[in-house]
Structures are given as C-alpha cells and as structure tokens.
Design brief:
Chain B: One of its GO terms (molecular function) is acyltransferase activity, transferring groups other than amino-acyl groups. The complex is a heterodimer of chains A (170) and B (396). Chain A has 170 residues and is mostly beta strands. Chain A has a domain of 111 residues. Chain A is built from no helices and nine strands. In chain A, strands 5-6-7-9-8 form a five-stranded mixed β-barrel. Chain A has a three-stranded antiparallel beta sheet with strand order 3-2-4, with no helix packed on it. The C terminus of chain A is likely disordered. Chain B has 396 residues and is of the alpha/beta class. Chain B folds into two domains: 137 residues, Peroxisomal Thiolase, Chain A, domain 1 (3-Layer(aba) Sandwich), CATH 3.40.47; 234 residues, Peroxisomal Thiolase, Chain A, domain 1 (3-Layer(aba) Sandwich), CATH 3.40.47. Chain B is 36% helix and 18% strand. Chain B has a nine-stranded mixed beta sheet with strand order 3-2-4-7-1-8-11-10-9, with helices on both faces. The chains are: A mainly beta (170), B alpha/beta (396). Chains A and B meet through strand 3, strand 5, strand 6 and strand 7 of A and helix 4, helix 5 and strand 5 of B.
C-alpha cells in the first residue's frame, strides 16, 4: 500500500507533481505585499505586517532557492512532541541550519538534508532548499523543506528522515 | 523619567526540583516578602500573578491562586503572561497601579514547577501556532536556538568555547554562595568541556536547567513607604516592556524566519539593545552608572550577548570584558552575582521577579558573601518568547 504524499504545512513550499517532476525547481513560498513589497515567510495572507503600510493584498511569491548559512547547530537529544520520531530507534542528531536569503534580506530556518552533518557546514556557505520528508505515518508521507549545501551531492532521492518514523536510511 | 515605586519586601522559595506544587513555592515566597516588608497580607490592596501556561491556558497558574492560598481578603487581582518576561510584566502592572493611584501596596508573585526535560508547546494539533510549528517541523528546542546564537557569535566576534565555559565558571562560583540557588557547587572549565553536547557548540553546562521556584515582591508608593517607616527603600525607577520594531532581523524564539528587510530598512537598533535603552531612558541613567546587572543567561553565550546589548561594552567586546574579569565579583560591573540562571535554572514566571529580589538585596547591602560593594544602581534584563522585552532598573 502506498502512502499519499502531503506537505506538513500547506502553502509553504512548492509541491511535487504526481510523476515526481520538479520542473522549475523546489521553492519555499512566501507572500509579498503589493503596496510596500515586504516579503513574508511564513506567509501572511490577510494583513501586511509593515506598521507603515495599509496593504491588504498579498500575493504568493517563491523565495530565493539558495542562500548562505547564517548559523547552524544540531539536536543531540530527541526533541519532544509534536516532533515525530520513533522512540524504538536510537536518536540520531539532526542538523538545523539558519539561512540568509540575500534578495529577501531574511533568515529562514530549516533542517539539514539527511546525511548533512556539522562537518559539512560553515557560516557563509551556500545552501539550497530541497524537498524532504519529515516523517511517515500509516497512510501519509509528510513532506517538508531541507537545506543542503550546493557544493555537495546528497542522496538522489530523499527518503524518510533516518531518525524518523520509518527508520529507512537515506 | 517616571516616579519611583518602593520595594518594601523581597522573598523567594529556594530553586530546585522539589516535586511539589507551584502554589506552595509562590505562597512561601509571598509570605517571605510580606515578612520582609513588615506588611500584613490583609493590608495588600492588589495582587499580581505572573502566569505560566499549562495545556494552552494559564488557568490555575495565575494570580488568584496565590490570593486564595494566602487567604481570600478581597484584594484586586491581575494575572499576566509574557513567557520568560512574565515576572517583569507583573512588576510593570503593579507599578502602573501604584503610579496611577489605584493601589498603595501591591504583592507580586511568580512561581513554577517545571516539567522535566525540554520545554515543549502545549498539546494538540495547532498548525497556526509558531511555537507548535517549530517543534513539529524542525524539532527546534530552545537550546537549538541558543546553539545557533552561540555559533554565530563564534564566527562574527571570535568568541571561543573557553569563553563560554568561563561564564559558567563565574556564575557557578557566585551561585555557590547563594543559599537560594539550586546548584551550589563550583564548576571548572574542564567540567563544562566534558559535559555532553546538547546543541552544538553548546554543552549541557552551557545551558540553564528548568527548575521549581518562587519569587515575590511587595511594592508600594513612596508615600506609603514613608508612612510605613521606610524612608529610604530600594526604588524601582524603570520597567521596560518594549516589543521589537519591524523588520525584526534577529531570529527570535519561536520563529522559523526573521522579518524581511527587503522593503523596509532594519531599525538602527536591534530588539535586545532597545529593551535596555528604553529602561535607561526611563530611569535617566546609563550603563556607566550601573553597579551590577542580573541578565538572563539561558546559555553562557547569551550572557555575553547581554553585555553588549546592555551597553556594558561595544559590540563584539563581550568576551574581552569577561576575560578582563570586569563582570566577575569585584570587577567593574559584576554580572549575575546571584549565580544567574546557570545556578538557578529557569522557573519561568518567577525568574524575572527573582532578578529584582537579587537587586533589592544587593542595593540594601544585605547580600552576604556575594555582596557587590557600594551597590547603588542595578539592572535586570530578560526577553520573553514571541517578542516580550523586559528590563528593570532599581536604585538606592
């Protein structure tokens, strides 16, 4: 039985087409105020948060696909719920990367792609947003975004987080 | 400048992991503060509780619970929540009531019985809550953010792991002298380096624990203090409770991203320095006037960050200030003479009140072995999740 793929949050990143085609590439999605051009991620859809702007019209905009590492760390201990991990499996540390997007002038946090370790990272290094799997349950593969250094080649097909619900090694 | 309010009494329940109810800690602290003030509970006109959150709403963990435990006597009640800044907002609320003439004498109480392990969001499926999302999507615990900040300081300012460890060494030595602290043992840099990594580059002994504890203050108008026979009390001269300015370009808990500065230039002064500046302006004082500071050392690296944000030194100079011993006991500006969160662990709604208890004892000259000589002006600094600034300036 195959699981359906679903984004863990709707509207934060581009979704894959049924045949896995990633035409145009994977992108984080924010919104831009049509009045003042402020960009928001996570998206704001109703009111602009610029205190000097009365804007009410916010349109979806893809964020820069690449940025540079502002800082990074890892989680050596199993995070509590609602993070999902299999308590039966030994916890494997996961990197967390804060990435500065030049055009948007903002920093966006994300997990490092599976297999990315601290030793692979440095402040200022270029990374790209790639599609990833957060966890899988009985009928759903929950998808998310990951950051991956552009100078390294990760696994061709991302599978479930090596520390996650399935225990599938990337 | 605004008018002063008097600190008539300060009291705390020792920090620890006692396994009892927060009501007991808060009531013990309140009784200690009332006894210290020489004020009867029945004469308190208003009680303000600093809340914590259980299951998504403060409920029981709020002001009226303490009023009931002390014995209902009809006092006006307020309950405030601002995450780690809850205690400062409780003080701000009490102060506003006093300065507006709504109350002469107010009891402020905060207490918590902390859960074991990482702080975590309230239960349920809440994808519209950024605090829930950062755990669900990223497993980003509070220490993970502390790790990001620490790594950034190392890269930008050249701070070292040894610098971070020396913050712990300093604070543990201070805490060893404080009977109210949870950890009363000196710690060596080697012990910090040998502790487990939690969120690289930070280790267990770089990060504060979560604790049980309670703290309380009796605040009054200066006129009440005079009538009460306290003509020269410690005075609260400023309480800063400011929010960030758009665009907030420093990644803050529990956010997944900063604001974008693409359309609007970032403010000249980031959020944390603006918290201190608002307090300095309200008090008509500045960093050069300080005798001591109690800052929120959630991590060792964050204590260094506060040195710069309080203006104790220039940006990037914090590690140098530490290495010179300026922030150690006997130094130019001792920081966390109480032992700080490193020695206490965090009891969220009590912690910012406990900071002011320490200022009170230091400014009275009754801090015993950890007394800062000739203390005249003290500042506290803290930042609550979601954009709650907090800083209190007290003088004698």
């Amino acid at each position: 039985m195959s699981r359906k793929r679903a984004p863990v949050v709707v509207g934060w990143f581009t979704e894959e087409s049924a045949d896995g085609d990633r035409e145009g590439g994977f992108r984080l999605l924010g919104t831009r105020c049509s009045a003042c051009a402020s960009v928001f991620f996570p998206r704001e859809d109703v009111f602009c948060r610029n205190p000097g702007c009365p804007g009410r019209e916010l349109t979806e905009v893809p964020l820069s696909p690449r940025g540079r590492i502002w800082s990074y760390t890892d989680s050596r201990y199993r995070p509590p719920a609602p993070y999902v991990s299999d308590p039966e499996l030994e916890w494997q540390p996961r990197t967390l990367i804060a990435v500065e997007l030049e055009a948007e002038r903002m920093v966006v946090l994300g997990q490092g792609a599976p297999g990315v370790s601290l030793a692979d990272l440095a402040i200022g290094m270029e990374v790209e947003a790639v599609p990833g799997v957060l966890n899988e349950d009985a009928d759903t593969t929950w998808t998310t975004w990951h950051w991956r250094p552009t100078g390294t080649r990760g696994p061709a097909e991302e599978t479930a987080d090596a520390t996650g619900a399935t225990g599938v090694k990337a | 400048m605004t008018a002063d309010v008097a600190v008539l009494g300060a009291g705390m329940h020792p920090w620890g992991k006692w396994g009892r109810s927060f009501v007991e800690y808060g009531t013990a602290a309140a009784r200690a503060a009332l006894a210290d003030a020489g004020v009867e509970w029945r004469d308190i006109g208003s009680i303000v509780g600093a809340d914590t959150v259980r299951g998504g709403y403060p409920g029981y963990v709020a002001g009226a619970t303490f009023a009931k435990a002390l014995g209902w006597q009809g006092a006006r009640v307020a309950s405030v929540y601002a995450a780690c800044a809850s205690g400062a907002q409780a003080i701000a609320t009490a102060r506003a009531q006093i300065l507006s003439g709504l109350a002469d004498v107010v009891l402020v109480v905060g207490a918590d019985a902390a859960p074991k392990g990482f702080f975590r969001p309230a239960g349920g499926d809440r994808p519209d809550d950024p605090d829930w999302l950062r755990f669900r999507l990223l497993g980003a615990t509070n220490p993970a953010y502390f790790g990001l900040y620490a790594r950034r300081r190392m890269a930008v300012h050249g701070d070292t792991l040894e610098d971070f460890a020396q913050v712990k060494v300093k604070n543990a030595a201070a805490g060893a002298l404080n009977p109210l602290a949870r950890y009363r043992k000196r710690v060596s840099a080697e012990e910090v380096a040998a502790s487990a990594v939690v969120a690289d580059p930070l280790r267990l002994l770089d990060i504060c624990a979560t604790s049980d504890g309670g703290a309380a203050l009796v605040l009054s108008s200066m006129e009440f203090a005079r009538r009460h026979g306290a003509p020269d009390p410690v005075r609260i001269r400023a309480v800063s409770t400011v929010t960030p300015r758009f665009p907030n370009t420093v990644l803050d808990l529990p956010d997944i991203a900063t604001d974008s500065a693409a359309a609007v230039a970032p403010p000249a002064e980031p959020f944390r320095p603006s918290i201190a500046r608002a307090a300095y302006e309200e008090a008509g004082t500045g960093p050069e006037d300080l005798s001591l500071a109690e800052v929120y050392d959630l991590s060792t690296a964050l204590e260094l960050q506060w040195y710069e944000d309080l203006g104790l030194c220039e940006e990037g100079e914090a590690a140098k200030l530490l290495r010179e011993g300026a922030t150690a006991p006997g130094g130019r500006i001792p920081v966390n003479p109480s032992g700080g969160l490193a020695s206490f662990g965090e009891a969220v709604p009590a912690q910012a009140i406990a900071q002011v208890c320490e200022l009170t004892w230091q400014l009275r000259g009754t801090a015993g072995e950890r007394q800062v000589a000739e203390a005249r002006v003290g500042i506290t600094a803290n930042q609550g999740l979601f954009g709650h600034g907090s800083s209190v300036i007290a003088v004698r």
